[in-house]
Every structure is written in structure tokens, then in C-alpha cells.
Amino acid sequence: MTMSDIGLWSVPLAMLGGAIRVSTPFIFVSLGEAITERSGRINLGLEGTLVFGAMAAYAVAVETGSAWTGVVAAMLAGAGFGLLHAWICSFPKVNDIAVGIALMLFGIGLAFFFGKPYIQPAAPRLPAIPFGAWSDLPQIQAALSINVLFLAGIALAVALWWCFKNTRAGLIVRVVGDSAEAARAMGLNPTTVRLIATAVGGAFAAVGGAYLSLYYPGSWNERLSSGQGLMAVALVIFARWNPLGCLAAALLFGAAGALGPALQSAGVTQGYYLFYAAPYVLTLAIMIATSSPGRALAGAPGELSITR
Amino acid sequence: MIKASHTITRRSLLKTSAAGAAFGAVGLPLTYRPARAAATTVGFIYVGPKDDYGYNQAHAEGAAAVKGLSGLTVVEEENVPETVDVQKTMESMINLDGASLVFPTSFGYFDPHMLAMAKKFPNVQFRHCGGLWDKSKHPANTGSYFGYIGMGQYLNGIVAGHASKSKKIGFVAAKPIPQVLMNINSFLLGARAVDPTIVCQVIFTGEWSLAVKEAEATNALVDGGVDVVTCHVDGPKVVVQTAAGRGAYVCGYHANQSPLAPDKYLTGAEWNWATVYTGFAKKMLAGEPLDNFVRGGIAEGFVKMSPLGPAVGEAARKQFDAALAEMKTGGFAAIKGPLKSNKGDQVVAAGQALPETAIELESMNYLVEGVQG
């Protein structure tokens, strides 16, 4: 046995690595959804935006040879999807949830259609920063090889949290999300604010997709997303519309997702299907534990179609 | 509904007969499609994209070989889930495209989907890829074909055994079904033909295609000290790229993945479905009955190996070539007694050898000693 055999220690290490590797799409999609919902709209189409963003990023990266150009392309495409959603929803009596589901299917279908020629070619990958270089253990080096987008996601979560609290722009989004009447009385146009918020949210979600196709797992195919976009929408409710909460929830979700493979690799082979359900069980458990009939959905924006 | 299916049944019967075309045009006003000339149509159904560097690509390459035959039309549909969707696909291939032979290529298409369709369309031939068909239980217009690709994994194992320094090799597997277990066991036994102390760590992802989980599983294997990885999932692209990115060697599966990791790719077990599909298609065109049970391995040209990569040393190459030559004579036995399962039970008695053709291998339900997982 070699130096690199670290036995059961590989489990917490893999969970740490998993939290860093797997959580990034969740961070971006849930932050995007948090902005959208704070402005009073629900965009369930982010799964479609994620998949389309993944395809767009991969395709552009293959064509231009630059992963970063791919990320920018994904952001533009995501903003486009967000604008489309917001535009359709700006008409009276349009149900944003139904539009979201339609756009989800549209985004996925469009991504499959345009993505066909890009399943085979290999695109350049996004760079990672080797924070683990101090260690001799390859496992630690691998776990701490951190992608720039992950760091950007953390910075973004903190920045959003601060903006919502302290800036005029944050206040405008919150007012529009809590009461459209109050916003109009202030001279704000809720439709414009929601248009911008949904577009920004779409752009963030598409970055999550770009991470999937350009870094981890780092290839485009039609089975790339396994519902990350939808789960992230649920994480926003779980995080009570707080960007820092979104970050924590995404990390927790990523770590729990790494539990299954890590335990099997360490020799725990019974009931791996159960371990694979760990993230979902965890979400359910925390939702139940933190819910109470007295203060249901604390922090929910007042204008959401589910709370209105 | 009953009337419609009756009409179609009669029609497909007519189609297969020589004068079918003429009758079809005159006698069936209900058909919503002009009857074609008596061309034979063959349908292929894939569970994923047909250029996935894996399972579906291998089948699509086989289907492409059939397209070259004259008098034959090929219809294909990809990304068909293993649900009632596949029944709709089969039905539309039969009703609308006039397919008289259908290949539902994924494991989960068989029961109940293909069986239900076989009952509904008794004049259409169905051949399923996998080992599920049983003469005593299933209709006569159904059948199965499969290849002894486990032997390819045995050869993978030999090369992996030479390449591994940590004496720990890894396997990313989808679901614990007999074919997958056979591949895992063969991979380890091939490696143990080089060094009997080698162990194989296996991780099941639970699904045929789940990119993030496959990447996580590969990372977990490498974190656990594995330095050669292979897999049995539908699209090995993610596993190959992730493992090579972590500095581990990889052995391919389903199709040739060497372009994805030219330095780290040792060899790979590939399907050669062209042999099988052209065989069926030629019989169909000649009007001969189709076999219900088709099997073959390296000797029959059902399975081939990727060219050896640059990292394969001289000793590995020699042992690989020797085993390959032995397999080409047919009936190679990777599973030989005495053999214990990893739970400690005796699974093959001393002196007993199960050649690749042994039917009991298709119901394998154990992992051999040395496999962890």
C-alpha cells in the first residue's frame, strides 16, 4: 500500500471536495432564482436555462477555443431566456409558473437541437487554482483544486446579500417583490425591475450550466444535468430567499451528494441507493425541522404567486 | 382501435409476402400513407444520444453498416426513455414506417415494453440487446443478441494489471445486473492473471447515464488509491476524461475513447455490432427466419479491442496478445474454479471452467473475491 492510501479519511475529504466540485451549479442557479423571486417572480425555467447555458458555453468554447468566451456566451443566452420569461409574464394574467415550465422544456429542447454536433468534440476547460499544492496527498490536492467560478459564486453570494441589505438597487428589488403597489407609489416600474432581475437571474443560472459543461464533469451531452436547475429552485425556498443561505444550502447539497460514491469507495457497499438520496432526505428533513405553522415561509417576498 | 391494429397486422403480413405492395395499395383504404415498394424497414431505438462515445454510438455504428445494404430502409430514434415512451416509439416505427424488424437496444426496453409490443404485433420481429430472452417464457417473434464483452474486459484487466502501481484498480458501474457483474469480475480476473494480489474497487452509480455522479465516482476511486479505471456506463466520456485528468490510466468500454485521453488510454473493449446487424438484415432480405438467440465474442467478430495505447509496456503487450490469440479460437474461460465470491461463498467448484458461451454466466449474481463493492 502506498502513501496515498488514507482509508476512511477519504470520506470527509471526498465530501469536502464534492461540496466544492458539485455545488457550483447549485450556487449560481439558486442565486439567480433568489434575485428573480426577490423581485416577485418565480422562474421555474432555470433548469432549461442551465441546460441551454451548458450547451452554449460548450459550443462557443469549442468554436473559439476559449472557455471564458463560452461562459460569456452562456450568460448572454441565459439573460435572453430570462428576458423572454419576464416579457411573457409582463402581460396581465399570465401565470409565471406555467411559463417557467414551458420555457424549461423549450430551453432543454433547443439545447438538444443545437447541441447535437458538440457531443463529440472536446472543449477547453475552465482553469482551476491549485490551493492544495502545500499537501503531498494527491487526494487533498484534488479536493482543493478549486475552480474560479466557485470562488466567483461565493463572492457573488456575499455581494448579493450585502446589496439586498444596504444598497438602493437591493431595496428597489425588494420593494417590487414585496408590494407592487408600494413600488408604483414610489415611482418605480415593477415590470422593468422584474425584467432586469429575471434577466440577471437567467444569466447566473446559465453560468451554472457553463460550469457543468466546461469544468465538472466537463463535457456536453444530453444527460448532463440531472435536475440541478430544479433542485436549486427548491434550495431558494430552503434558504429563505437569503443569498448566504443559498450558498450554505448549495454546499450542503454538494457534500451530501458526494457521500454515496465516497462511502462505496471506502468499502461501505450496502444501500448505496439510500446514500444517493441523502441530499433529498436532508432537504426534506431540514424543511420539516425549520417549518412551523406560526411563521410559515418567513422571508418570502409578498408578490410571489405562491404567497400572494 | 381494435380494427386499426387488425388492419395493420394484415398489412404487415402482406408486406412480407412477395405481392404485398400491390395489395397494400389497392386493398387498404384506411392506411394513411401510400404503400411502399416491398422494401424491408428496420428500426433501431437508442436510450441516449447516438454519438455518446459509448453504448449508443456502438449501436448506431452497427446500424450505419446496415444502411449500406440495398433494399433496406433504416429508421432510428435516440433518447428514448425506458418507459412507455419506447412502446410508442416501437408502435410508430411499425405503424408509420412499416418496420418489420425492430432492435430496442437498451436493457430496460425488454420487460414489459418490448414484450407488450411483440404480443400486439405478432408479425413483426423484435430482437433485444442483452441476456433477458428465455425461449420457454417469451414469444417466438422476440429474441436476444449479445456479445461476450466480458472477455474484452478481461483483456482490459491484463493491461491494467501491468499498468497499476498501487495494485488497486477501479470500476465505475451503473447497475448490478449480470452483464455488469460479469465485466467487473472479468476485469479483476484479467488483472489477477498478472498479479494475484490486485484488488478492484467498484462504485455503482445506480443509473446508466448520470454525468455528475460518474465524475464523483471516478474521483472517489482515485481518492481511494485506484490508478487504473474502467467503467460500464452508457457514455464513458466523463469517466475517461475525469480519470485521465486525475492522472489515472483508463481502459475504455463500448467504443474507442482514446481520442479523449490519448496518453492515459491503455486499451478498451468495444462492440462490433455491425457483424450482428448485417447478419440479421441479410437473413431478413433473403426471407430466411431470424435466429432468436444470437451470441458471439471476439472470435465471431462481435467484440473488438481498441489499439493499445502508448503507455502499454512490452510485457503487457505480450500477455495481451497471447490471451487475445487464445480468445480468437473461441470458448475462452475467464471464470475458472476454484473461485469464491467476495462474500466468501464458493461460486465455481475446483476443476470447473465456464467458457464465455456458458449460459449460466448470463445470470451472474456475484462479485468474485478481490472485488470491493
TrEMBL record, chain A:
GO cellular component: plasma membrane
MF terms (GO), sorted A to Z: transmembrane transporter activity
Principal cellular location given in the protein's record: membrane
Bilayer-spanning residue ranges: 6-32, 44-61, 67-88, 97-119, 139-164, 193-212, 232-259, 271-289
Key words of the record: Cell membrane, Membrane, Transmembrane, Transmembrane helix
Top-rank taxon: Bacteria
Hydrolase in keyword set: no
Membrane topology, record value: Multi-pass membrane protein
Pfam families, A to Z: BPD_transp_2 (PF02653)
Cell compartments where the protein resides: Cell membrane
Keyword flag Transmembrane: yes
Protein name: ABC transporter permease
Organism whose genome encodes this protein: Chelatococcus reniformis
TrEMBL record, chain B:
Full protein name: BMP family ABC transporter substrate-binding protein
NCBIfam families reported in the protein's UniProt record: TAT_signal_seq
Keywords of the record: Signal
Membrane-spanning segments: none
Signal peptide boundaries: 1-21
The ABC transporter substrate-binding protein PnrA-like domain, residue ranges: 40-307
GO annotation, cellular component aspect: plasma membrane
Pfam families in alphabetical order: Bmp
PANTHER family in alphabetical order: ABC TRANSPORTER SUBSTRATE-BINDING PROTEIN
